[in-house]
Amino acid sequence: MSKTNTYKRLEGEHVLKYLSKRKLIDMTEVVSSQYAVKPLSTRNNVLKIESGPGKSLFIKQLGNDDVSSSLFHRETGVHRFFHENQKAFFGASVPSLVHVDEEQNMMITEWVDGTSNLHDYYMSGQHFDPELAHSQAAVLAAYHAPASELESIALPQLLPWVLQLDKHEAHQFFPDSPNSATVIGIVKEDRLLSERLLHLAKHWKQTHLIHGDMKWVNLLVKPGDKPSHYLVDWELADLGDPVWDVAGLLQSYLSTWLFGFDNSNPHSITRTELMKPYDLSKMQPSAIAFLEEYLRLRSIEGQERSTFLLKVIEYTAARIIQTCIEGVKYSQRIEPNNIRGIQLAHNMMADPDEALFTLLSIKR
User: Fold this and answer.
1) pLDDT single digits (tens) 201-229
2) Which of 197, 243, 262, 328 is 20 to 30 A removed from 303 (C-alpha atoms)?
């Protein structure tokens, strides 16, 4: 049920009152001007609360509709699971849960000072360190817990929406976005893509905890001699196929390369000046290091490795389709690179082994 009677968006002067009442902030820091509220631009109500070095908080408040409530309970359930099983899993790689407000669909975690999301880190540094990729593989391998250990979390066990395109009309997925509906229509009209997405849906495995929305922006990195990572935004966490998360991170590499082509000249392979440092050849060693380290940590070898690699390249193609559809949701128009992405996904699905070798220099 929606929380229409008790729900109230937290903002303005009410933020300090809320935190102070629950003793989540030291008022002496407010008096000394170390306190600041910084709204972050997302579809949810997200606030960064600065209150002194090492004491910052992150507030995430979802809406009060039924869908938002479901996502809220998935995310808080996973955070509680990690909090209660820190030794068994990787509690240090998820920001600590500080407070949960069921009535307001709101959770508060620590804000890890000195971090930036992986997308911003790569965009500013223009360097793709394979050792950093090894650390990312370790994070994924650590939290992919088997279903038998997840009885304490209520997870809906849903298919990713991009694997359900056959179940609904194009306009039903993003009712307020004609552009997204158009791109979905292009995908649905592509016989090969439709058949491969349906095949992936039929063979979806619900075996492990997955993040569900793995991509660079949801992985924070804190630089240092030994860089550390923190995984955030667990609202799509579920019981599913861990290869989906691996594909999500590989998709970030490929999409960064893909969207670097010049949209003003769709018939060429010219890259914009800004995106020249993000050519696939420069990112490829990092992507390979990530994938190979994950395989090593999960002891995936032999025939299992071959099966994994086939699945991961097809899942990566599905994630690229998803990114192209989501990428035009708020756009004025569909850019050529969005159509390039659909074509790339088609090529990957048509010949997965060729895609593995061309994009990642890996043979099954």
Assistant:
1) 999 999 999 999 999 999 999 887 777 88
2) 197
